Amino acid sequence: MAHAPIEPPPYFDALLERLAEGDPEATAALGRHVHWGYWSDPDAIPCTGADYAVAAEELCRRVCDAAPVRDGMRVLDVGCGFGGTIASLNERFQNLDMTGVNIDPRQLARAAEMVAPINGNRTAWVEADACALPFADDQFDVVLAVECVFHFPSRATFLAEASRVLKPGGRLALSDFVPSAEGLDALRKHDIGGSETRDSYGAVNILCGEPEYRALAQSVGFIVPAIEDITPHTLPTYKFIRNMAARWQATGADAYVRTTRRLEVSSRVGWLRYMIFNATRS
């Protein structure tokens, strides 16, 4: 079924502007990875962009290792952003054939500029819709999607596409925001993901619970998936992101700060969980 064209999240406009201006904090924190971080100490207080970058790299590695990625594989990174996941794999592995997909040519241009293949690896950058991947069946050993699936118009369609392009026995690994059973009603009631969220984070669907996720994956040919809750280790993200956005004083920054605070509260009370999901195509 056709869906409306996907637009890049609004926060990328402000972020790309800061990067173009050479903002040192934005460049250090979000110049490579544009997603939440993982801290072994949930009480950590990230003070600098460099602190945040280390945590974001750790989260990326945990998703990749859930697949797991190995030397010589063919890897598709959907929603690749600035190429941070592919950059990380490029440094860690050899003889990978890596393709990054994104709907935003600006992000792809930065990725191509930032990532120079080493270790016998190969990279390609493709402007495409995650729900209509321009690849033949059975092409990839691993499909990755780090913190982007909630932007897609349909998880069911994306999961079907990921299954289609994976080889039999291939692995899907992703991270996503997943509501708890009690959180579903609360998130709807408080309009988390509503109009203010769309104005700052873009189109967001955070109302797909774990049972639905499992059912969707199994319906398109994945063996029963594993889901790991890492919410406590992501919580330091919120304060850093809110403080950085507040300092930017960009259009919409106030709404972004308010929305981020609401997401934080939802995560701390257990309504919303940050999960790493991995599954094998049958």
UniProtKB/TrEMBL annotation:
Annotated keywords: Methyltransferase, Transferase
Residue ranges of domain Methyltransferase type in the record: 76-173
InterPro entries: Erg6_SMT_methyltransf, Methyltransf_11, SAM-dependent_MTases_sf
GO biological process, one term: methylation
GO MF, one annotated term: methyltransferase activity
Gene3D superfamilies attached to this UniProt entry: Vaccinia Virus protein VP39
Highest taxon, organism lineage: Bacteria
Protein name according to UniProt: Methyltransferase domain-containing protein
Native source species: Gemmata palustris
Higher taxonomy: Bacteria, Pseudomonadati, Planctomycetota, Planctomycetia, Gemmatales
